[in-house]
Structure formats: C-alpha cells, structure tokens
C-alpha cells in the first residue's frame, strides 16, 4: 500500500470523524524532515510521520529497516517530543497499523517483527475503528508514559 492510499482511505476519514481534531497534511518537498501531519485537539498538539509498506517480510527474523524514515524525520519528532509535543511514527504494514511514540524511535529501523511490535504504543488492523487510536494520539502524555512496552 502506498502512503497516499493509507492516508486517503484510512487515516483521513478516521481523523475527520474525530470530534474537535484540527489537522494539517504537510507535503513539503523543500524542507527535509517535516512530518506528514500536524494536529491539535483539546489543547494537545503534535506531529505524525506516516509510512506504508505492502507486507511484512516473509521470515520472522528478517530485519525491518524503514529505509525511507530519514534521520531528519526522526530528529524532528524527537526534538518536538522532548519539548512536550505528542509525536509519532505511524506505519501501515499490510493491514497492520503500528504507532511508535517518539521515545521509541531509536529502536525503529533495524529490528525484526517481534521486537518491532514491542516498541509500539498502539497496534491495530485496517480499517481503523473505535477510539483507542485517538486516545493514544490525542491525549496529553508525559514522556514517562511513552516508554517502549
């Protein structure tokens, strides 16, 4: 699945149905590292970087590299997370949706499937339903509550 499809078919409708959410989709080819989405809801603001992949590697032990998750994107999310914003990487792999808080981004990018899942703060399947994803993204959180599980 392409990132634009993941956004257009799944996340955008979910965001539109979330009461009180103001969001902006950023498509900036000029400034490196700007995440795909900024948001504010009920006094909570943050940033989200999106990634989408067609499927999981065939072998459980194969490393998942996230080659298109750049150092600039990682740095942007980490610095703003340290400053108090809610910052996440959301990856869609096949029909699985994984949410990684900024505090776990160092573990993302060169690990196998079972270890990668341990870095998530939320995991679900497409189509996204219910409020649990919104609760993860749009609730005020301290850095101590976002340590990898």
Which range does the strand content fall in?
Answer: 15-25%
Q: What is the CATH first-level class name?
A: Alpha Beta
Which parts are unreliable, with pLDDT below 50 for 5 consecutive residues or more? 143-149
Number of helices: 4
**How many domains would you count in the coordinates?**
1
**Number of strand elements:** 6
CATH fold type: Trna Endonuclease, Chain: A, domain 1
Helix content: 10-25%
Bulk shape = globular
Going across the biggest sheet, name each strand in turn. Answer: 1-2-3-4-5-6
**Main beta sheet strand tally, sense and closure:** 6 strands, mixed
How does this model look, in words?
This protein is an alpha+beta fold. It has a single domain (3-141), classed as Trna Endonuclease, Chain: A, domain 1 (3-Layer(aba) Sandwich). It is 25% helix and 25% strand. It is built from four helices and six strands; from the N terminus they run H-E-E-E-H-E-E-H-E-H. It has helices at 3-16, 71-82, 113-117, 132-137; strands at 22-25, 37-41, 44-53, 86-93, 96-101, 122-125. Strands 1-2-3-4-5-6 form a six-stranded mixed sheet, sandwiched between helices. The longest helix is centred in the N-terminal third of the chain and has 14 residues, at 3-16. The radius of gyration is 14 Å and the shape is globular. The two termini are 27 Å apart.
Layout of helices and strands:
Blueprint: H1 3-16, E1 22-25, E2 37-41, E3 44-53, H2 71-82, E4 86-93, E5 96-101, H3 113-117, E6 122-125, H4 132-137
Parallel strand pairs: 3-4
Antiparallel strand pairs: 1-2, 2-3, 4-5, 5-6
């Amino acid at each position: 699945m392409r990132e634009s499809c993941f956004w257009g078919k799944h996340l955008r409708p979910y965001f539109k149905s979330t009461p009180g959410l103001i969001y902006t989709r950023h498509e900036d080819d000029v400034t490196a590292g700007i995440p795909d989405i900024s948001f504010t809801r009920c006094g909570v603001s943050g940033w989200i970087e999106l990634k989408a992949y067609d499927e999981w590697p065939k072998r459980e032990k194969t490393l998942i590299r996230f080659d298109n998750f750049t150092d600039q994107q990682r740095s942007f999310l980490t610095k703003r997370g340290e400053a108090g914003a809610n910052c996440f990487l959301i990856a869609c792999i096949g029909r699985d949706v994984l949410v990684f808080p900024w505090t776990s981004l160092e573990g993302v990018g060169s690990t196998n499937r079972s270890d990668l899942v341990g870095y998530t703060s939320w995991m679900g399947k497409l189509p996204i339903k219910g409020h649990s994803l919104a609760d993860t993204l749009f609730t005020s959180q301290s850095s101590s509550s976002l340590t990898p599980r």
